[in-house]
């Protein structure tokens, strides 16, 4: 690769075949480095390789010039302006006072001076050794938005498109890339599925459009649509991406913008652009790193050892002998102060025709639950080369990452219930490796024993890259260009879970240790080619035509085996453990997507705008009769201030544009082969009985044809969007108001059916309709704009309501969803026509005069019996309380979701924070309903005692009330996501820049919810990995 970085600016560079060879070499190289070497060798190798790369640049020349770059309007110094010798890589960056020092190479004749937001200058080098420059602010500076298969000026955008650049990203210990924009964009709700580092995440753009298929948006990274699903440790599909390498996010929210991606655009599209080098820029080395410390935000509300002894004395005085003598806080035993560190090194630069960026990163973050951790090593390369007088442009984007995760074992669930009077260890009990355990299957496990003995790790290696070649036919057909994009995405995982023979569950259930091994892999190949034609006809007409073809092939394989009844614990999962019994399986899956697409952008007099797109997708996930789908869109825009009669409005507005958009998008993110019979093992719920053995019924698992629906077809979402863009005071205040309606037809859902001879009771089919309606507001305010003091504030708010419009093949009651802990097969949510998606389905609990729920076990209605009618309302009036009296009550999705950002700069200091909040979301407190009653203490008091949730002391419930609306709580909240203060050291020599900063992460949460954290995508709070609170101390360095 050195030939690409170190060649002389005037030397001939390798041809396209060389770039393709480099792509293949990168894949082999990273695979060897990550997979074949251990972590120490890996770090050592990358350090040497990167340092070797740095040695390629050298300073040379004889004459030195100095000078200053200032603003032509006010004379203020411009910090970080580029002064480049044209045609070479020699250059300088201005310091804090706008000064530069530049050594000129032989033959230098021209200088190019540039700065963001100012018009570039090209100046001949004279005889003077002092050259000062005054740059004029660019009146025509236009923000460009990256959209599907091209870009568009923001002023010409007709769809709902939002962009966030690296300058506005969130700060702090960013583990996963989506955290960079949390709270930044109206209508984009980002919710982590707990606080586990590298854990799953829920991203919703204008609400969910499906009830069973994926609601995740499509991610496009440097032109490659990626598979949202991970393997083994890849719980978050973006885990492999180093957040320090991201330049911008562009979010396509409505169908008029996303329809160009057809069957994958129903949930919106997020386009991620990584950082690139800059042509004509001298080589620059940058480092960004931080150290972090995180801890538990709040300990769960369970009884202390003293409180527990008092409750046992009251509830079960005959079980006092079961109490221990210790005082153990199980949550203290399983949590820790989690340390972490992150380091990112990058080298960027370029010549007149070449730009490049090479980077390496390393991150290690511990979880607040002991035994959990995530680790990532990543490398990246971006290379761009212009040839043939800029007619041919070749871009290469390559990324590789090795991630290693250690998973928690659900020990937080055991910590809720384990007896606090028992000690961690029991010296007399050698059967369980010295840990105190109850020797019965129904008892909770010792949480310390769980994470100490079970080893559960996942590793994944992901390689993502593409090579793009664009040729401009200028001179032959001006305005015509052709582009080819070849890409790949390869993900290989390793999942290992070892349970020793000394763990309680293996002994109690008689399988004597277990080793589970899975080596899943996923890969995709991409070929895209499209033509773009741009034309201006006089001053009235301007248009752009895009037409193309896309082919993407996906392959998956899931080989696995399970060994149990181990003969030794010595090997763990570093080798195949000797065992008496084995199970082996392998699943191979393939699907393909072929597409044809086109787009027209048209502007009349720069005031009337039109965008029309059409995409035709064919997916192998559907039968031949339903394989192809057509996805059109239309958008209109009116730039009012461009009207001849709008002179008076210009005194009020700096921007005023009305937008309308309509389009159809699809969703095909479902399991493969749902339209044909496939063979699988029969479900345990749908087996038939074959005789008896020792008096017990015998059920045989057979290999049988799976249930299927031959008429399975696309989900289609029709979206209508109305928008208004406005600005005041020369852009000092700007914003957007949007109203949208999204309706999804042919909802995909797995429904229950009679088992029949196929021994299956479920099929995936199309069942109904769903609608989302919403209103969004975005405001950007430049409060102060001075050179030494600036302050920008952003505010966004989104209101969304969803409703189930129709459900086919389902009883009038609806479809039960949202499984909970407690009992067997209990569901707390429902899909019902006329109700929000996943509304809570509960009884209405009777209240006393003080507003408290009536306790059970008391004949409140004086009918001579104690039953459900004593505490629940008989809503249907049939004289009894049964499941028919349950009703939909509240929902998990917020009515309003908002975000506030602030960025302030004073002298060399900077201060920023991000707030996020939600109003109208409700949470089912499953932790309280599953443990907040007195009888739980003594349910198996003859063998063991359970701890109790403190809510039981308030309600006085004797037994579980899983379906009481008492546990459906208002989860509205306001959270300070992060607050950062930084300092940039001034007046450093040359191009050196140093910034130090400190960030408080998740420092404040305001909510009336009685649980630990109300921010839950599902709305069900049940043993989730807790979010943490902490500090980050970081350093940014540029040379």
What is the topological layout?
Elements: H1 2-6, H2 16-36, H3 39-54, E1 63-71, E2 82-85, E3 91-93, E4 99-104, E5 110-114, E6 121-124, E7 133-135, E8 144-147, E9 150-153, E10 161-165, E11 188-192, E12 201-205, E13 218-221, E14 224-225, E15 246-252, H4 255-258, E16 269-274, E17 284-296, H5 305-315, H6 330-334, E18 338-350, E19 354-366, E20 373-387, E21 392-406, H7 411-417, H8 447-453, E22 455-472, E23 480-499, H9 504-508, E24 514-518, E25 521-537, E26 541-566, E27 579-604, E28 608-619, E29 628-639, E30 653-667, E31 679-681, E32 689-693, E33 696-699, E34 703-705, E35 715-728, E36 733-745, E37 748-752, E38 762-766, E39 768-785, E40 789-807, E41 815-819, E42 827-831, E43 839-842, E44 887-889, E45 896-906, E46 909-919, E47 922-925, H10 926-931, H11 951-955, E48 968-970, E49 973-984, E50 993-1007, E51 1020-1021, E52 1028-1038
Parallel strand pairs: 1-7, 13-16, 47-51
Antiparallel strand pairs: 1-4, 2-3, 2-5, 5-6, 8-9, 10-15, 11-12, 13-14, 15-16, 17-18, 17-52, 18-19, 19-20, 20-21, 21-22, 22-23, 23-24, 23-25, 24-26, 25-26, 26-27, 27-28, 28-29, 29-30, 30-35, 31-34, 32-33, 35-36, 36-39, 37-38, 39-40, 40-45, 41-42, 42-43, 43-44, 45-46, 46-49, 47-48, 49-50, 50-52
Helix pairs in contact: 7-8
């Amino acid at each position: 690769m050195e030939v690409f970085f170190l060649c002389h600016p005037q030397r001939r560079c390798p041809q396209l075949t060389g770039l393709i060879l480099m792509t293949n070499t990168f894949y082999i190289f990273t695979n060897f480095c990550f997979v074949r070497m251990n972590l120490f060798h890996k770090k050592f190798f990358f350090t040497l390789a990167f340092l070797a790369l740095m040695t390629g640049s050298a300073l040379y020349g004889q004459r030195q010039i100095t000078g200053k770059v200032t603003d032509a309007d006010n004379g203020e110094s411009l910090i970080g302006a580029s002064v480049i010798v044209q045609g070479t890589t020699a250059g300088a960056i201005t310091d804090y006072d706008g000064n530069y020092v530049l050594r000129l190479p032989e033959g230098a004749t021209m200088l190019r001076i540039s700065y963001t937001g100012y018009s570039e200058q090209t100046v001949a080098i004279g005889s003077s050794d002092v050259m000062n420059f005054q740059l004029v602010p660019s009146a025509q500076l236009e923000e460009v938005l990256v959209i599907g298969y091209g870009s568009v000026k923001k002023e010409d955008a007709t769809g709902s498109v939002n962009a966030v650049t690296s300058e506005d990203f969130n700060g702090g210990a960013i583990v996963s890339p989506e955290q960079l924009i949390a709270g930044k964009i109206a209508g984009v709700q980002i919710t982590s599925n707990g606080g586990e580092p590298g854990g799953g995440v829920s991203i919703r753009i204008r609400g969910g459009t499906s009830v069973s298929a994926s609601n995740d948006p499509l991610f496009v990274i440097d032109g490659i649509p990626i598979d949202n699903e991970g393997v083994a440790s890849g719980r978050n599909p973006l885990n492999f991406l180093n957040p320090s390498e991201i330049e911008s996010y562009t979010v396509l929210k409505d169908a008029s913008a996303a329809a160009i991606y057809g069957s994958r655009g129903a949930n919106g599209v997020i386009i991620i652009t990584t950082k690139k080098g800059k042509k004509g820029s001298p080589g620059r080395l940058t480092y960004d790193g931080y150290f972090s410390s995180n801890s538990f935000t709040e300990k769960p509300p369970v009884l202390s050892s003293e409180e527990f002894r008092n409750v046992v004395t009251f509830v079960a005085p005959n079980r006092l002998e079961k109490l221990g003598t210790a005082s153990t806080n199980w949550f203290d035993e399983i949590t820790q102060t989690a340390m972490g560190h992150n380091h990112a090194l990058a080298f960027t630069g370029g010549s007149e025709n070449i730009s490049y960026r090479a980077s390496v990163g390393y991150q290690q973050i511990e979880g607040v639950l002991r035994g959990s951790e995530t680790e990532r090593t990543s490398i990246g390369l971006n290379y761009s080369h212009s040839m043939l007088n800029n007619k041919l442009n070749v871009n290469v984007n390559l990324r590789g990452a090795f991630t290693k995760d250690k998973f928690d074992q659900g020990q937080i669930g055991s910590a809720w219930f384990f007896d606090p009077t028992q000690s961690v260890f029991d010296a007399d009990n050698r059967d369980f490796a010295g840990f105190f355990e109850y020797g019965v299957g129904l008892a909770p496990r010792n949480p310390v024993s769980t994470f100490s003995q079970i080893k559960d790790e996942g590793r994944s290696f992901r390689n993502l890259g593409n090579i793009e070649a664009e040729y401009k036919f200028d001179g032959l057909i001006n305005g015509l260009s052709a582009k080819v994009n070849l890409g790949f995405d390869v993900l290989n995982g390793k999942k290992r879970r070892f349970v020793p023979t000394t763990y309680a569950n293996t002994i109690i259930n008689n399988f004597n240790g277990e080793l589970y091994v899975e080596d899943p892999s996923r890969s995709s190949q991409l070929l895209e080619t499209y033509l773009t034609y741009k034309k201006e006809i006089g001053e009235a007409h301007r248009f752009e035509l895009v037409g193309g073809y896309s082919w993407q092939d996906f392959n998956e394989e899931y080989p696995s085996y399970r060994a149990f009844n181990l003969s030794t614990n010595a090997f763990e999962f570093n080798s195949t453990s000797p065992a008496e019994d084995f199970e082996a399986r392998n699943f191979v899956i393939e699907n393909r997507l072929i597409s044809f697409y086109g787009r027209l952008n048209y502007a009349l007099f720069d005031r009337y705008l039109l965008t029309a797109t059409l995409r035709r997708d064919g997916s192998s996930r559907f039968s031949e009769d339903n394989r192809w789908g057509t996805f059109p869109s239309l958008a209109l825009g009116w730039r009012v201030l461009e009207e001849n009669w709008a002179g008076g409005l210009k005194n009020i507005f700096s921007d005023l544009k009305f937008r309308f958009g309509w389009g159809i998008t699809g969703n095909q993110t479902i399991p493969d082969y749902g339209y044909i019979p496939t063979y699988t093992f029969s479900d345990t719920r749908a087996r038939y009985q074959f005789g008896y053995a020792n008096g017990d019924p015998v059920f045989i698992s057979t290999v049988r044809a799976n249930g299927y629906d031959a008429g399975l077809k696309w989900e289609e979402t029709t979206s209508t969007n109305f928008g208004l863009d406005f600005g005041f005071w020369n852009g000092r205040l700007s914003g957007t108001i949007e109203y949208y309606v999204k309706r999804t037809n042919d909802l995909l859902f797995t429904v229950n059916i009679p088992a029949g001879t196929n021994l299956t009771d479920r099929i995936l089919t199309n069942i109904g309709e769903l609608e989302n309606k919403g209103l969004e507001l975005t405001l950007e305010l430049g409060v102060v704009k001075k050179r030494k003091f600036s302050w920008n504030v952003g505010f966004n708010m989104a209101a969304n309501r969803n409703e189930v419009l129709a459900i086919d093949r389902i009883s009038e009651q609806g479809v039960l969803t949202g499984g909970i802990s407690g009992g067997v097969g209990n569901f707390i949510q429902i899909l019902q026509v006329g109700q929000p998606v996943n509304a809570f389905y509960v009884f209405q609990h009777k209240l006393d005069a003080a507003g408290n729920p009536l306790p059970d076990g008391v004949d409140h209605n004086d009918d001579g019996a104690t039953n459900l009618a004593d505490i629940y309302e008989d809503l249907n009036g049939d004289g009894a309380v049964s499941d028919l009296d349950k009703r939909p009550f509240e929902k998990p999705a917020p009515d309003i979701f908002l975000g506030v950002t602030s960025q302030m700069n004073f002298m060399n200091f900077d201060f920023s924070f991000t707030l996020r909040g939600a109003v109208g979301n409700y949470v089912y407190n499953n932790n309280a309903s599953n443990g907040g009653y007195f009888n739980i203490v003594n349910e198996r008091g003859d063998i063991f005692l359970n701890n109790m949730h403190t809510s039981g002391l308030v309600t006085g419930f004797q037994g579980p009330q899983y379906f009481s609306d008492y546990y459906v709580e208002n989860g509205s909240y306001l959270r300070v996501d992060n607050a950062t203060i930084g300092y940039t050291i001034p007046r450093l020599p040359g191009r050196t820049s140093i910034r130090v900063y400190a960030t408080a992460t998740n420092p404040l949460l305001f909510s009336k919810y009685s649980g630990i954290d109300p921010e839950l995508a599902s709305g069900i709070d049940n043993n989730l990995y807790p979010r943490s609170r902490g500090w980050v101390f970081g350093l940014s360095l540029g040379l």
